[in-house]
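Escalated from tier 1: AG3 holo job.
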Amino acid sequence: MELWFTENHSDSVRFSIRVDEHLYTTESDYQRIDVFNSLEFGKLLALDGYVMITEKDEFIYHDMIVHVPMAVKKDIKNVLVIGAGDGGTVRELCRYDTIEHIDLVEIDEMVVKVCREYFPSMTESLDDKRVDIHFTDGLRFVRRKMNEYDLIIVDSTDPFGPGEGLFTKEFYGNCYNALTENGVLVNQHESPFYKNDAKAMCAAHERLSSVFPLHRVYQAHIPTYASGHWLFGFASKGLDPLKDLDEDYWNSLGIRTRYYNTELHKGCFALPSYVREMIEKGTPDII
Ligand code: AG3
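Tier 2 regenerated the structure:
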């Protein structure tokens, strides 16, 4: 018998990955957590039926959410990561000796437990002495912070379920206050392709740009996410992801990456015309 993991990418599109084992399933206080073994992508973590990571393509997402801001601002010492209980973002951050402290805020302790068991190579940096893990709501955590972080990474789920609050104007405003003068916020920014994702993408851009003086969107190809075309947001109080990119500095660090490089950095902010138009108009109704 063949087993397939299927995710709805839109109301009339489904995406299936052949699996040979359903390794784990549970219903936590926040969501359903599943781990499968797939033939093409290795182990796969799904939350509420949506692919969060697979062993084969997680490097793309984690490279892009971490190395883009790290190549722009070299004196990043104090970092806040929201979501990301799988450890991938923290693993990439821990490669920088300049980082002194990372607060990881994950609402669902079960995600960390399950990932520690099934994705040990992703979670190993969670034990780095610079990392403090807080099992609480990111929205609440950031409210009390002022002028504290050089970088905030919002590595959330989609804007429904436990991740919903992490796409609100209130949350972005609190992140603004929690950031230092030259601080940067990077978030996962949904996909421009299918209408529901595109709506969320436009709304996130609209809200972030109403709070931050600068907000740019950049892209990557992530095969297991809806349409394979995924976006990230870069928001700051003034730092520009292209003008302030310090290529020589980043390349001198000698960090080996499989997806990110500084040439790609310069290209990933160049968006297809339909995405630019959508962002300018603030609505996906143009497609
Ligand atoms: N964070 C989730 C990205 C959004 C996935 N959405 C989807 N498949 N519909 C991934 C966590 C990696 N640390």
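The pocket of AG3 is lined by residues 50-53, 61, 84, 86, 88-89, 155, 157-158, 188, 225-226 (CB under 6 Å).
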